[in-house]
Amino acid sequence: MSELKACPACNKNNNIGTEKMSDGRYVRFRCFTCGYARDEWLDTETDALKSWQSRPIEDKYRNALEDICTAFFVEGGDKTTAYNMYEIAEKALK
To answer: Where do runs of H (alpha helix) occur along the chain?
Structure first.
């Protein structure tokens, strides 16, 4: 299994695992530190993992940030400033 992303609610990843419905047919990932879980119950652990790892809003912002930093650098900004901009924004997303 790939490394699990941190919980989107408490930002911890040391106590995340699967839980199954009482009949054992459906599964989802849950953070046992804060109790957060995806709303959907899925047929397989693979699908549940994909759901847990999916962060479309974060991915959208990261892609936009990369585009901004690239444009800044291409327009004459220095590479260090572009990198620092990215690092600051990346920390804000965590």
So the answer is: 45-53, 56-74, 79-93
pTM above 0.90, yes or no: no
**What gap in Å lies between CA 92 and CA 13, rounded to an integer?**
18
Q: Which two tokens stand for residue 84?
A: 């620092």
- Tokens describing residue 25: 């047919």
DSSP 8-state assignment for residue 94: -
41-86 confidence digits (pLDDT tens): 999 999 999 999 988 887 788 788 788 877 777 777 777 777 777 7
Q: What are phi and psi of 4, to 5 degrees?
A: -75, 140
3-class state of residue 42 by DSSP: strand
Could you give the CA distance from residue 50 to residue 35 in angstroms, rounded to a whole number? 19
Task: Give me 6's structure tokens.
Answer: 């941190």
For 10-31, write each residue's pLDDT tens digit: 989 889 999 999 988 899 999 9
